[in-house]
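User: Hello! I'm new to structural biology and keep hearing that structure can be predicted from sequence alone. Could you demonstrate with Metallo-beta-lactamase domain-containing protein? Please show me the input and the output so I can see what each looks like.

Assistant: Of course. The first part below is the input, the amino acid sequence of Metallo-beta-lactamase domain-containing protein. The second part is the output, the predicted structure written as tokens.
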Amino acid sequence: MNRKLFIVFFLLILLGLTYGILSTLPDGKLHIIFCNVGQGDGAYIKNPNGTDMIIDGGPDNTILACLGRHMPFYDRTIDTVLLTHPQKDHMQGLISVVERYSVRHFVIGNEANTTEGYFNLISSLKKKGTPLHTLYAGDKFQMGSVDYDVIWPSMSWVRSHIEASSSSLNTLALRNGQVFGTATSNNFNDFSYVIHIRFNDFDTLFTGDGDEKIQPEIMRNVSIPSVEVLKFPHHGSKTGISKEFLEKLSPQFSVISVGKNSYGHPSKEAIDLLNSEHINYRRTDQHGDIEVVSDGEKWSYKTQK
């Protein structure tokens, strides 16, 4: 390669890198990407000030590809990761996230699974020295101009539903003498974090797998916000959401995070309910990554496919 061609080649690479960096700088908007992680949940959130967050990680390391598509290539830090509840289809991919990125804060419930995956996740977090936080209904935190409100579960509900043993107040999940959380035989779905995200006049609700079993409890104890965007609970299961809960939320748009499965997700009942309420929706299995963008007033979405 002669000198002129080398210079042109170098300048083209430099121009490409400069464009890549400039295009990923904070734009003052909230970006919520519902990642196509298969039969599970995984979302990446970029706040208007450039801080970021992951909610759930899917059943395998597929979420890493989603992060590669939507995070700046030079960014190896994630400010906050939140696990809605410790089941494989929400949890497993977070092991790879913790191992490959620097995570500043990790939000996790008090309930502990006794699977290998759960122990591996907690071991990775402890090895990295990542601060762990347990939140309850009424807890709030901010990431720049975006408010994150926990509306489920309440501390009293968690304490009353964690199983007790005769020898101690709680039964501890142990491995090699280390405490990994509090064991429970209750349905992990019921413990799912329900998170209200508010950016000025734009609202989103993340629901994990918290279905119609716990929704009456939420409605009794919390003023349900109306939202523009709803992450449909439990991958569109037939018990995912009650008509009353959906009407209180009155979303304009819903995302169903789902993949190939033997459960019949999303169910006919869920789709019929969304259609009867005239709610537009998209599915990750059909549309790939689904990105919602808002400036705090207006919002739009786009899909990968």
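User: So the tokens describe the shape?

Assistant: Right, they're a compact way of writing down the 3D structure. Reading them back into a model, for example: Confidence is low (pLDDT under 50) at residues 164-172.
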